[in-house]
C-alpha cells in the first residue's frame, strides 16, 4: 500500500495537475447534471451510476497511459490500429443502434456483460497516434505532393469507414482532427486553396446527390427556424426553448420538471445546462472546455519533438471541434449531426476515450524533460 501511495505522490509531482483538475471538474459537473436530469424523470439512475463509473475509469486510464512514453505507444500501432479498424468493420454486421430514432449502427454489444461500446471512439485515439507518427516521419516532405497524397489516404480511411457505418457526425470529427493535424504540420497554402476551391465546386453536387432529405432539412432549418418544429427538428426546437427559459442564472438543477428534449442527457445536455444553470452556467462550461483546449495547445508548443506536438494537436482538435459542433447544434447555428459534448454528455465509451486522449497529452507533458517537475 505504501508503494502505491508513493507512486501516486510521485506521479502527481510529475504530471500537469491543472489539466487533470479541469477535467475532473467537468466530470463532477456532468454527474450533477445527470442527477438533475434523473430528478426530472428524463434519465434513469443507471445514467448517473454509469457517468460516475466511466469518469473514474477514464481518470484512471489517463493516469496509466500518461505513465508510458508516448513514443513507445506510437510504435505499437501495428497492434492496436488494425484491431480498431476491425472493430469498426464488425459494426457493419453486428452493430446496434443506440436509440431507434437514429440510422447508424455504431455500437457493438459486449458478450455476457449487457453493455455496448462504440468502436469509432477507440479509433479516434488510434488515429491520432498513427497519424502523428506518419506526419513526423514525413517531416518537411509534406511539401511534396506524393507524401501529401498518402497522408490524405491515411485520413480518408477512418472518415469513409465511419461514413459507411452511418455516423456522419463522428466522420466529420475525424475530418476535423485530420485537417488540424495536417495544418499544424505546415501544409502549404496552395494545397489548402486547391482543396477549398474543389469543395466549393463539389458542394452543389453533394446537395443534389449525396445528402438525404433529412440532412437537407436540418441544414435548411438554420435559415427557416419554423420549418418542421413538430417533426425531425422537434429536438432542436425544444432545445432552444429550454436554453432560452434559463435566463441569466437558470431555474435550478432539481426543480423537478424541465423542458423535455429527446437525448437531453446525451447530445443535447447543453440545453439542460442552459435551462438549469442559465447563461452563467453555459459560459462556465464553455470556459472550462476552452481552458482545457488552451492547455493542450500549450503542451503542443512545448513538446520537444514533432510527434508529441502532433498528438496534442489531435487531442485538442477532438475536444475543440466536438464542443463547437455540439453547442452549435444546441443553439441552432449548426445542423444536428449527433455529436456529444466532451466530458459532460452521458456516455461510457466517449467519456473513457476522452480521458485516454488526455492521458496521451499528459504523456507528452511528463516525458519532455524541459518542464518535468516544474510548476506552471
Describe the structure.
- The chain is mainly α.
- About 70% of the residues lie in helices and about 0% in strands.
- It contains 14 helices and two strands.
- The protein has helices at about 1-15, 15-40, 45-65, 70-75, 75-95, 120-140, 145-165, 170-185, 190-210, 215-220, 235-245, 270-300, 305-330, 350-365, and strands at about 110, 115.
- Strands 1-2 form a two-stranded antiparallel sheet.
- Helix 5 runs parallel beside helix 7 and helix 8 (about 170-185) packs across helix 13 (about 305-330).
- The longest helix is centred in the C-terminal third of the chain and has 34 residues, at about 270-300.
- Mean pLDDT is about 90; it is low at about 370-375.
As a whole number of angstroms, the C-alpha radius of gyration is 21 Å
Arithmetic mean pLDDT: 88
What class do helices, strands and sheet pairing give? Answer: mainly alpha
What is the helix fraction of residues, given as a range?
55-70%
Shape: globular
The strands making up the biggest β-sheet line up spatially as 1-2
Helix-strand pattern: HHHHHEEHHHHHHHHH
As residue ranges, the low-confidence spans are 370-376
**Span between termini:** 30 Å
How many β-strand stretches? 2
Largest sheet: 2 strands, antiparallel
Provide a count of the helices. 14
Strand percentage, roughly?
under 5%
Quaternary structure state of the chains depicted: single chain
